[in-house]
Amino acid sequence: MAGREEMSTSFGAESGAYELGRPDYPTQAVEWILQPVRDEGRALRVADVGAGTGKLTRVAVELGAEVVAIDPDPAMLAELRAQVHAVPTFVGSAERMPLPDASVDALLFGQAWHWVDPAAGSAEAGRVLRAGGVLGLIWNIRDESVPWVRRLTEIMRGSHAEEMLAAGEPPLEAPFSHVEAAVWSWRRPMTRDALFAMARSRSYVITAAYDERSRIEEGLARLFDEIGAVGVATVDLPYVTKAFRAIRP
Predict the structure, then answer these.
(1) In terms of CATH architecture, what is 4-146+158-187+238-247?
(2) Rounded to two decimals, what is the model's pTM?
């Protein structure tokens, strides 16, 4: 099995699959994260860290924020620029952001904090956020209370994010203390191609050996046949979006 660092930087190899297969974030969830720093007098200064192909970036832009996108993988940022125009992009990480001190109102991490060193990431977030700024962490997690979705995960294997959130709140350290949480349930219509793309965009699958990846692909094909995800037909993939916010003292 690939190491954690290799897995965390593997996504650029499947940036197109990531864009097609991964869900967008519910607007109301991003609004909830940003609510403590909303100021109708000016646009919010927001950094999307671990921005990937811009799934979270575009929601923040649509909500009127001035956004910069940061990701360690240039291939992911190239896909982001193709999808979201006029957003500055920078290569960087949660532990080392190319941003000045106290320069943003909000830091957003979509499907990303589980790759972050909590102490170093929290300290760096505290550096770049202004006093009263908000650190927002959000994940779209498949709803495994549905039997076929649970089988889907068994075939693909679970993720670091799912393991972390099953244990409770995401770990934060100084200068952050109190964390608020909120949850939304929703469904995303998915074609067979989109379901395969979602699976192929996962770090475990990207870094899997040939035999393991073949096993996964064969298992997915059988499952998708069973649930009627054939051709252009769609099935609803249920999601639970979990969002967390913490205020910079």
Answers:
(1) 3-Layer(aba) Sandwich (3.40)
(2) 0.93
